[in-house]
Amino acid sequence: MKLKSIAASGLIIFNLLSCDKSDDIIYVTQSNVSEITTNSALVKVSGLAVNSHSPYTAGFSYSGVTDGLYLDSGNENAVLEDGYYEVQLEDLLPSSVYTLSPFINIEGRRIYSESQIEFTTQSEIDIIGQTGPGGGIIFYDDGAGGGMEVYPTDWTAAWGGYSQSVMFCETNFGEGPINTDQIIFQTTDVGNAARLCDSCTAGGMTDWFLPSKDELQLVYTALVQGGHVQAQYANYWSSSNNGSSNSSSYAIHLGLGVWTQHLRYENFYVWPVRIF
After folding, report:
1. Mind listing the pLDDT tens digit for each residue in 35-53?
2. Strand pairing partners for 25?
3. Cα–Cα distance, 102 to 111 (Å, whole number)
4. What are phi and psi of 224, to 5 degrees?
5. What is the pLDDT of residues 118-163, one digit of tens each?
6. How far apart (Å, rounded) are the C-alpha atoms in residues 274 and 141?
């Protein structure tokens, strides 16, 4: 899921005083944290050393706290090119507060700022079991803002195409739309399971389909076993068939989670699915 980023920034001033006041060196860094997600953040640092005649680099150390527990800390160093560098922090934990402590490396010394910058990673949002854009129940999250939803109904229908060779109806995840089209194209049964799903307009959407075996399995695992939806103690058709048979296709008993092959003229429950 795409999450909104927040930013943190701060102006950090380091003062290193020598014995001779005329040689005082002032280090100024501007740190900015942006593009914050659940597990990453972009840190940008610019720096300037006033009155310094020695080469220097800058960096920061960071540590985090989540649920009251301290996380492992790390250090990031980089040569300041034209007074600027950036580092992409990865493998952060969600919903955690991270603290950055900028420093300057000069003449073998690491000088830390007394000021720090804090930022909080985004929280993970579990959308499984929530209402989807088509009014169904989400059972799959693709991690990029999309997923799949199922629309529970009390519809029953035959699979169709009994005694016919219905080809290209695979079991894999993602095959449901193709399977549905193949069943409609290769069968003539009016109101069979695939046609019921294809004609569904729930939520104003017209891209519903009969789920494949693996897709319907995930509906069972994520929603039925997860307690998000209550199914009938009965069989539900998938769009996957037994390629070696002209008479049977796969159905799952959503009360037991058991897959069996059944004759295609049998009437079982049908739940449409769509991708969003």
Report:
1. 888 888 888 776 555 555 5
2. 16
3. 9
4. -70, -55
5. 888 877 778 999 999 999 999 998 877 789 999 999 999 999 999 8
6. 12
User: Using CA atoms, how far apart are residues 136 and 153, in angstroms rounded to an integer?
Assistant: 10
Contact yes or no for 208/202 (Cβ under 8 A): yes
How many helices and strands (H and E) does the chain possess?
3, 18
- Tokens for 208, please give them: 């519903």
Write down the pTM of the prediction. 0.60
Q: How far apart are CA 105 and CA 34, in angstroms?
A: 24
The pLDDT value recorded for residue 201 is: 98
State the Cα angle at 158 between 157 and 160, rounded to 5°: 135
Domains contained in the chain, CATH given: 8-120 (2.60.40.10), 137-275 (3.10.100)
CB atoms within 10 A of CB 254: 24
Higher-confidence position of 96 and 221: 221
- The chain-wide mean pLDDT, for the chain, equals 81
Q: What are phi and psi of 194, to 5 degrees?
A: -65, -40
245 or 204: which leads in pLDDT: 204
